[in-house]
From TrEMBL:
Keyword entries, A-Z: Ribonucleoprotein, Ribosomal protein, RNA-binding, rRNA-binding
Signal peptide range in chain numbering: none
Any one Gene Ontology molecular-function term assigned to this protein's record: structural constituent of ribosome
Protein name: Ribosomal protein
SUPFAM superfamilies, alphabetized: Ribosomal protein L1
Amino acid sequence: MATASSSLMMTQAASSAVRHNHNAEDAIPFLSSKPNFRTTIMWYPRLVLQSRGTRRNLRSHGNVHCRNLLVSTAAAAAMASESDLIDAVDEEVAGQPPAAPVVYTKPKTGKAALPLKRDRTRSKRFLEIQKLRETKKEYDLRTAISLLKEMANSKFVETVESHLRLNIDPKYNDQQLRATVSLPKGTGQTVRIAVLTQGEKFDEAKNAGAEIVGGEDLIQQIKEGFMDFEKLIASPDIMPKVASLGKILGPRGLMPNPKAGTVTINIPQAIAEFKKGKVEYRADKTGIVHIPFGKFDFSDEDLIENFLAAVKSIETNKPSGAKGVYWKSAHICSSMGPSIRLNIRDMLDYKSPANA
């Protein structure tokens, strides 16, 4: 681009010399020398103004002046080096851009070099234990439980979870799924239960083992941000007052509901069931049900029994609007471990040795 600019400036210099009745030789020192920063700054504004004036002069004075200008311009252009003209033609007339500079990129190492983007944020422990299972392989239930316990190597007792994808769309009322299941071997967790009631049922709830019991005073505390409980049970007579807590308890999944067994007349029985291992579940907006069914330190038989109870409950509470294949996929995992895909047919037909 520097040579093209020099050719343009030399041509304009010669034309300005003719317009002001100067000899073309006066411009030779400028034309014969290579342009530098200082020369460009001095000559460029003047050349632009003179070139504009020359164009006006050509329109007003006719062909004679034009002929003189063309002769002078040709003489100035002939004085330019042949290489400058060739470069100008190559770069500006032909429109060929200059070659792009080669950018050196440093090769990626470590986690940044992993092919899957999700693995780049995993811990070293997770990347090691996920090598124990094949990603797309479907395992039978007993093998999956054994493999899961082998991969659960955190410093705390991990919870064992199931994630079951169903062929339902919960945005339709006849395809929503929400129910409870009592796990035979419990969840292995200590549940803090709060009870909202009034009158004589205060003493019943306290004697049944509820950690928190209250009425309107507890409702006010919840409005102020009190959430030190995992399960909230309410009696039907206080539900009109509990309705004002919908925006607070709803998003957290704590709003009492008859389908979940948390709105009941028999409060002592409800408390005992949740203490023993009753679990509430529901399908999320993508049709997946998430159910914890024990702890890592449970025996294999206890985990299998709890898992089969959850599967049977989901099968029993199948929505009326569910059509076609009900089960799409099933995975189990520990709290800090990778998921293991189950074989659906083996899961549904599995029979424990005690029942065989």
